[in-house]
Design goal:
The protein is mainly alpha-helical. The protein has one domain (7-296). The protein has helices spanning 7-31, 34-56, 64-92, 94-101, 104-115, 122-146, 154-177, 183-204, 210-216, 219-246, 249-256, 259-271, 277-296. The longest helix is centred in the N-terminal third of the chain and has 29 residues, at 64-92.
Length: 297
């Protein structure tokens, strides 16, 4: 009997973790800066992965080219990609940026077809369409709230999803090159690449003050931001890369881009509001897409 857990469950759990953590990231980004928040959560994740790896003693020797790929993946996907994403979010608005990220499953599907020989059947395409409809529906609700679309950051948004997809592909290549490597070790090296990138920016471009900003937080705020960083960067990345190492990239990313729907649901709970018709419809699309991937992909 095959008792291996379907990678979709790892992707789904990772999406839930990141969706909740994103509400915390949003709160503290407004209190600090995007660069400060991104740097902080990357550093917290790095030490969390390092502690876990030392605790579990699951380190295995890997070739230098795999190390280079993972460092590049972290720098490209976790650091540079986030910079372009924040730029696009600032210029486009959240709803438009989320719609752009809905293109990522197709981008990864085509890439993995040529690079990893993954199949991309009609059933896969239908599932991706349902997941994209989920994303479009929740984005449409935000558009109606704002009342307009902004298009000046379109190029930045396309660069962001391309860089994020590149990071995922480089990571998958590393998994294929090093059988037996765990997502903990992979994430540690990726986070090291991101932290290295942030330090380079710190020394050559943008200076930030970590300690004064940290001291301005209350005790509860410090606990909250550390918890959000562990949940949204450490735990979410670890689960997501387990899914990436085992599943088809187009399908895994399709589940992951539905995070805004869950973030909206958490906001309803936090604000004690009933879910809107858009949220209910987006959840219907999500269930349809997830059912297709779980049973037919």
């Amino acid at each position: 009997m095959n008792t291996e857990i379907n990678p979709l469950y790892f992707a789904f759990t990772a999406t839930i973790c990141f969706a909740y953590a994103s509400t915390i990231f949003t709160e503290f980004t407004r209190k600090t800066t995007p660069f400060w928040m991104n740097s902080f959560k990357a550093i917290i994740a790095f030490f969390a992965f390092l502690f876990t790896l030392l605790l579990t003693n699951n380190w295995i020797p890997i070739e230098i080219n795999s190390v280079f790929l993972l460092l590049s993946s972290g720098c490209i996907g976790l650091m540079i990609g986030d910079i372009f994403m924040l730029k696009a979010m600032a210029e486009l608005g959240a709803s438009r940026m989320l719609m752009i990220f809905g293109l990522q499953p197709f981008l990864l599907g085509v890439s993995s077809y040529f690079i990893f020989n993954h199949s991309f059947s009609l059933v896969n395409i239908i599932g991706v369409i349902f997941m994209s409809l989920c994303l479009f529906t929740i984005s449409l609700e935000k558009y109606k709230q704002i009342g307009h679309w902004q298009a000046s950051g379109l190029i930045a948004g396309l660069i962001a999803i391309s860089l994020d997809a590149t990071g995922v592909i480089l990571t998958r290549i590393s998994f294929n090159q090093t059988p037996g490597i765990t997502s903990i070790q992979v994430n540690l090296i990726r986070c090291a690449g991101a932290v290295l990138g942030f330090f380079l920016i710190y020394f050559f471009k943008e200076k930030i003050s970590f300690t004064p900003t940290w001291n301005n937080f209350s005790k509860n705020e410090k606990i909250k931001i550390v918890f959000g960083s562990i949940l949204g960067t450490f735990l979410s990345l670890m689960l997501y890369l387990v899914a990436v190492s085992k599943g088809k990239l187009s399908i895994i990313s399709s589940v992951s881009v539905t995070g805004p729907m869950f973030a909206a649901a958490f906001e309803c709970v936090k604000g004690k509001k009933l879910p809107s018709k858009y949220l209910i419809l987006s959840f219907f699309f999500f269930v349809c897409g997830f059912f297709i991937f779980l049973n037919y992909a």
